[in-house]
Each structure stands twice: as structure tokens, then as C-alpha cells.
Inverse folding.
């Protein structure tokens, strides 16, 4: 199918065409692949039960419960997708089939990791604990982990929101006005490339509290990313839009809020996404070096006491929390920019 044929078609229409063009062999292969996670789950369970342990393993059923939760959700989604497929709705099944290889790889990785740690000790304990030992450590110290997680989220969003607000203000001002850009641009170019960790000794001395210093460090990285993206977006707005609006009697305030910011919104949201990544990195650095609580502080504390299973538990929680935050931000971004989803060019 050439480009002229696909021009003007939506993504859903293109997907329908691709599905209709699949051969019987390809459709059978899709169903086989969709059952791979169940097979890999069985391999992981059999490995855990049948292969003898090298180390004492307390509460072994907790690991099996962990394995069972995602596969239970997957099986429910797979059954639902197959029922819809029989009724002619193939989109749900396509989503399930798309995620099947990745979920299969996760189960195989967990099985291999269990072999290298609990079963054989190739990866030395306690420096690298097995998954069930990490689960036990998280459950044992759950109260402190909850407190540290809440503290981390408070610090993250306080610094992130401050950085976003200031970044949008400076970005819009420097992108819309050449006079403001003359003063702001050199500051951004000088301060932006400097690593966050460089500021920590100075901030910890000058800040009124560790919390205030950490908020500044987190907000600084966010401010830089949002400022650069916003400035770029505002600067690239077609000048003819301003001219037409001025002809119709629009004020400078209306030009900024009704033309500049809406047209630059994709760049602003992209900067906010990049700013969240910078904020997460800055947050961990700040917590490890001086904050009195938080997941970064917990990791440093656990490492100092050689409690590596607790350290890995905190690392896993960090991955989960930051992944959820990033997904929520992407959902918000996709919702705001839903007008961009449409015809494939």
C-alpha cells in the first residue's frame, strides 16, 4: 500500500486494513504468542518450587503470590479479548497480544534471577538478594517505607510544581518578547548545563532548611527543561497569527493567552515531561545527601547498615512510584493534546 493510498486515513483505519490483510498463519501465530505469558509463568513457578534452595527462604509463598497477580490480570484480559474477538472487535486482542512478549520476558527474567540468587548463589548474597527476600524486607519495614514514600512524593511535587510554574513564566516571557529573551537566554545557557549535584553543597549552606534546599534543587532542573521547551514553542508560533489578532483589536494579554500559549502547548507539555525526569533524578540526589527522610535517604541508610534487601525494596518502590507518576503525566498530556490525534499525514 503506497503513501497516496494511505493519505487521509486515520490510525484506526490503517490498523483495520493491516488486520484484514493478515494471513491465517499470522492470525494463528498471534494467538500462540498471546499464550506465551502463561507458559513462562508456569516455568517460573516450577523453577521456584522444584529447584532446591541454597539459602533459607522465609515465607516462600509470598513470591508465588507476586507471580500470580500479574498473570491473573493478564488471563482475565485475554479471555475478555478473545470473547470480543469472536464478536468482531479485534482491537482489545491486539493490545493484549502486543504486551504478551514483554510479560513473557519478565517471567523468564524472574526465573533466571531466582536461579542466580536463591538457587545457586552465583550472585552473592547479601549484596544481591533474591526477590522473595526483598518482598519480606518490604513487608517487615512497610511502615517506614510508607512514610518515606509520602515524604518523597511531597518533595517531588513541591519542587516540580514550583519549577513548572517558574519555567512557564520565564519561557513565555522570553519566547514572546525579544527584550526579555536578551536577559533570560544567557542565564538559562549558563545555569542549565550545570549538573544538579554541583549546587547541592552551596544550597545546603544557604538554604533555611534541608526541605527548602531540596525543593530548590528539584525545581531547578524542572525550571530549565520547561523554560527551554516553552521558549522554543512560543518563538515558533506563526507571526501571521499575531498580526491577524492585532488587526481584530486583541491586546497583548490576549495574544499571549489566546494565541501563543495554546499553539505552544505541545512544547510546554513536552518540557513538563522532561522536567519530571530531571526532577526525579535531582530528588534522589538531594535525598541521599542531606534530607532527613524519603526513599533516597532510606536507600543510603539501608546501605550503611548492609541491609541490602531493604535497599533493593526501596529501589523497587522508587521505580514503581516514578513509573506511575510518569504515566499519569503522559495521560494528562495525551488528554490535553487529544485534538492532535486524527488523520495520519
Amino acid at each position: 500500500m503506497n503513501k497516496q493510498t494511505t493519505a487521509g486515513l486515520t490510525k484506526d483505519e490503517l490498523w483495520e486494513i493491516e488486520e484484514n490483510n493478515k494471513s491465517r498463519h499470522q492470525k494463528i501465530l498471534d494467538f500462540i504468542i498471546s499464550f506465551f505469558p502463561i507458559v513462562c509463568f508456569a516455568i517460573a513457578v516450577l523453577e521456584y518450587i522444584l529447584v532446591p534452595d541454597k539459602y533459607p527462604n522465609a515465607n516462600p509463598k509470598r513470591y508465588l503470590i507476586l507471580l500470580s497477580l500479574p498473570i491473573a490480570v493478564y488471563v482475565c484480559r485475554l479471555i475478555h479479548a478473545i470473547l470480543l474477538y469472536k464478536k468482531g472487535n479485534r482491537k482489545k486482542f491486539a493490545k493484549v497480544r502486543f504486551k504478551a512478549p514483554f510479560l513473557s520476558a519478565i517471567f523468564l527474567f524472574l526465573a533466571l534471577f531466582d536461579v542466580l540468587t536463591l538457587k545457586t548463589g552465583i550472585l552473592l548474597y547479601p549484596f544481591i538478594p533474591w526477590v522473595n527476600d526483598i518482598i519480606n524486607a518490604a513487608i517487615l519495614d512497610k511502615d517506614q517505607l510508607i512514610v518515606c514514600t509520602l515524604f518523597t512524593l511531597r518533595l517531588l511535587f513541591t519542587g516540580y510544581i514550583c519549577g513548572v510554574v517558574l519555567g512557564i513564566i520565564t519561557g513565555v516571557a522570553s519566547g514572546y518578547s525579544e527584550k526579555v529573551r536578551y536577559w533570560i537566554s544567557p542565564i538559562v545557557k549558563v545555569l542549565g548545563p550545570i549538573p544538579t549535584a554541583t549546587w547541592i553543597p552551596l544550597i545546603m549552606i544557604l538554604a533555611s532548611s534541608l526541605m527548602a534546599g531540596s525543593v530548590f534543587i528539584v525545581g531547578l532542573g524542572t525550571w530549565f527543561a520547561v523554560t527551554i521547551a516553552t521558549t522554543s514553542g512560543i518563538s515558533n508560533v506563526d507571526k501571521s497569527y499575531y498580526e491577524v489578532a492585532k488587526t481584530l483589536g486583541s491586546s497583548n494579554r490576549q495574544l499571549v493567552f489566546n494565541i501563543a500559549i495554546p499553539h505552544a502547548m505541545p512544547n510546554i507539555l513536552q518540557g513538563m515531561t522532561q522536567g519530571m525526569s530531571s526532577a526525579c533524578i535531582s530528588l534522589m540526589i538531594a535525598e541521599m545527601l542531606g534530607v532527613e527522610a524519603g526513599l533516597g535517604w532510606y536507600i543510603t541508610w539501608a546501605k550503611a547498615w548492609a541491609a541490602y534487601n531493604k535497599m533493593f525494596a526501596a529501589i523497587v518502590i522508587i521505580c514503581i512510584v516514578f513509573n506511575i507518576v510518569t504515566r499519569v503525566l503522559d495521560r494528562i498530556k495525551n488528554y490535553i493534546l487529544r485534538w492532535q490525534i486524527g488523520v495520519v499525514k
Remarks:
- The chain is about 80% helix and 0% strand.
- The CA atoms of residues 166 and 223 lie 6 Å apart.
- Residues 3-136 form one domain.
- Residues 1-7 have pLDDT under 50 and may be disordered.
